[in-house]
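Two proteins were folded this term; both appear here.
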Amino acid sequence: MSCLTDFDASELFQHINAREFSCVELMSAYIERINTLNPQINAIVALRPAELLLQEAAKADQSPRRGWLHGVPIAIKDLAETRGLTTTYGSPLFSDHIPRHDCGLVKRIRDAGAIIIGKTNTPEFGLGSHSYNPVYGTTKNPYNTALSAGGSSGGAAAALAARLLPVADGSDMMGSLRNPAAFNNVYGFRPSVGRIPSDKAIDTCQFPLATTGPMGRSIMDVARLLDTMVSHDPTMPWSLAPASSFADALQDDQQSVAGMRIGWIGNANGHYPMENGMLELCQSSLRTFESLGCTVQNVELTFDLDALFNAWCTLRSHAVAMGLQTLFKNPARRALIKPEAQWEIERGLNITAHQVFEASTVRSAWYARAAQMLTEVDALCLPSAAVFPFAAEQHWPDTINTQPMSTYHEWMDVVVPASIAGLPTIALPAGFNESGLPGGIQLMGRYGADLDMLRLGQAYHEQTQWPSRRPPT
């Protein structure tokens, strides 16, 4: 029965629709596998009782098909409000928080027929690319359980790799989809900002730094979940107009990627320190695109990347502080916030309006530079992470090849160019190093060109099938 957990979500839809197995059989297989493997990796938290899940699966068997996720087990990232299910944000301040309503994202996933079985683990308030918190503990990497699964969508990525989930939602501010995708040999897609509306936006006129997005073991699953997550909100200025189905476009696609141009940034002439072996592994993956008829060329960013990172830090700290300042200003609550979050909030509260303006002008200049480069190539390519999975007990890498990291997130600098510009970015597995640890690349495209990035990802997936290389667990 456990072989049912090997199917991608798109395959599950076909089998369930054809009544080749029941939703109860599928749920039983996932419960068995989660009970066996989740204690090793701690990817899924707040798991609901098995008897309730089986009851919902039985009801799904007796009900008309609601959508492509009908009867499929899904766990929601523990940053999204989920009705009747503990939603902690990884913080002890919310350890008993049970929302009465679903956020819009979760509602759309339920409406597609999914059975929500629990949550996926995340760092406290989603800050940092390593999924540990004082509520649920640390998520481990299925390829080596002594190592990190990344974050903040680390629980989602680890659950996908270990076949505890067929598809998963994630979110990405500073690589929170892309780092875990690289660490766990799966796919993650950061869509154009505005493609998926934010449920928590207060200042809707400011160009957002973060977005939710889909993760999966196949690009078709990523596209289908993206279709589910997309929603146009006319009250939000950056909400993109509804697009036709990304999954249908890929399914019917007769367009070859041959002739598409990929610009390889690499380590940007040494600006981004890289762990030994990372650049070579990522460059080797580019040969797949060349075999598909794409052209790959080295590109120069010709931009002040130190200024870009400083601008990012200013805008990020400002955004985090505005969201968490109420908790921080209460001394009793502040004591229960992790040091990195306290540092981020305090820094943000001391940032001036002039500093925010200066950072925004750097952001605008980079957007213009990236847009210009993306008239010369169809995608810009970088490693998804500068390091391979690191020790699970280490909170964050404080050095890369002896170069010290000045902040808890400087080691994630390689994801900033896409994040700060809000560009659609697909994270793809690049293979494994000599120690058997996964690495990955990211392709970022023109704003709004989400389908082009998915098309490149689909062609790459068909050639490589990297997620079929299962973890030793």
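Next, the second protein.
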Amino acid sequence: MNRRSLREQVFKLLFRAEFNTPEEMPEQEKFFFESGDFVATPEDQAKISEKCTKILALIPELDQEISEKLEGWKIGRLGKVELAILRLALYEIRYDDDVPTGAAINEAVELAKKFGQDNSGQFINGILAKFARQ
């Protein structure tokens, strides 16, 4: 599975976390991989699971940073799709040395165009551009 596909699966699993408690996530992860919606090797599953677990552990820090960049918005007003994308991208920008900042932003915009609302790509790009300037 290529990086883009892995990232998309991480996003989908992160999105599930918005509707489940942390205690439910191991079971949700099991359902996610058994759903048959995509084919992933055990190695790919481990990569997806590991990245998602790391992001979920950092949600308070990621959300704080995102909140600081929102102008006229509160994080609670963000759509769940956009929030999951921002968390993933910010994690890649801050903590994943294998992903260049520009790539993280571009991939986040593509996810937003695919899964978000009409202007989600622009919104995501605008927020993440503020992190790129730091």
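Residues 3-132 form a domain with the N-utilizing Substance Protein B Homolog; Chain A fold (CATH 1.10.940.10). The mean pLDDT is 93. These notes refer to the second protein only.
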